[in-house]
Amino acid sequence: MQRITVSEAKLGMKSARSIYNADGRLLLAEGVPFNDYYIKRLNEIGLPALYIQSPLSADVKVPQLVQEETRIMVTQLVQKSFDGLRAGKRVDLDQFKEMAKSIVDEVIQNRHTMIHLNDIRIHDDYTFGHCVNTCILATLTGVWMDYNEKELYELSLGALLHDTGKALIHKDILNKRGQLNPKEMTEMQRHPEYGFDILRRYSQELSMLVVHVAYQHHEKCDGKGYPRGLAREEIHEYARITSIADVYDALTSDRSYRSAMLPHEAYEIMQAGSGTQFDTEILKIFLQQIAVYPVGAFVELNNGEIGVVIQVNRNMPTRPKVRIVMNVAKQFCSPESNQEQDLHENLTCFVSKVLSRAEVAKLEKRFALQGFTAELQEQSG
Ligand SMILES: [Fe+2]
Ligand SMILES: [Fe+2]
């Protein structure tokens, strides 16, 4: 699986994931080859990136914490509630509660799955998918903090509703392509207060802890956050968890002003905020769930081999199992040859570099030029 920009989409490439539009309608099913019409549609809907099946790793399946169907349903609910709030309607909290329960159930079930890739979002829809992803990441952190079901459910609901106040931010500011000016930034930074004001009207149906996640998720442990400059234990634990999930999701998502960071880059940035921006202990637990070199990533090893990650190791996240696609002599190895390096066992070997998208594309081109598959077929025939 390889992430490319829409402008890099070519005839015959196959999508590695089903692609849906903002209404949740299927645009392109997994495995269907691109034709002129699909490429035109992908450009029209403004999708920032997509996953394609790489000929070098077509058999590698990326694990997911929550099923795609659940993600879509929840994303649609968040979008519907934002539209409703803008039109002065009430939030249907029963539906949110139901969805938070589903996420908690799925995350508990898949608790051993590490955090892999984000969903792909259309720029203007960033906020909706972001709320869902933040919720999933926060819930997983809660699971590994040994929260009971009631706590997990409160945390999940709070994280899902954390950016509710953004419904009151003008769409021109919310979806602006480019950096905000100081006036716009001040308005944007009011969304925790807006969210608090909206959600506290539901105090009969909603725990105030949930409401405070929306109010406090931009506070920082060193007291330099907003809106109130709260520090450390003054910030509720649910909000401290949500703030970590929120920033990680933002860093690893494509934004209008920059492309998504790779997990190992985001990992470093998060680590740098330990104790100042983020709670040290919670951050430690969160970072243990990140697949630093996720399944499907192409890596170069210190011995010169290039491979694709096929399995991550929870106890040693920097030592995954890698299937070699190019050997030391710079010759391609067929997937069938099953040449693997388990870095957990071979301790003299380590990842020296993660290949960029451009480098993987180059590799695929060479692979295609060599007509490796055809050659193999000829040999076996
Ligand atoms: Fe926020
Ligand atoms: Fe957020």
TrEMBL record:
Keyword Hydrolase attributed: yes
Keyword Hydrolase belongs to the record: yes
Pfam families with a match to the protein in the record: HD_5
Domain HD-GYP: start-end pairs: 105-302
SUPFAM superfamilies: HD-domain/PDEase-like
Alphabetical keyword list: Hydrolase
Alphabetized CDD domains for the sequence: HDc
Domain of life the protein comes from: Bacteria
GO molecular function: hydrolase activity
PANTHER family noted in UniProt: CYCLIC DI-GMP PHOSPHODIESTERASE PA4108, CYCLIC DI-GMP PHOSPHODIESTERASE PA4108-RELATED
Protein name (Swiss-Prot/TrEMBL): Metal dependent phosphohydrolase
Organism: Acetonema longum DSM 6540
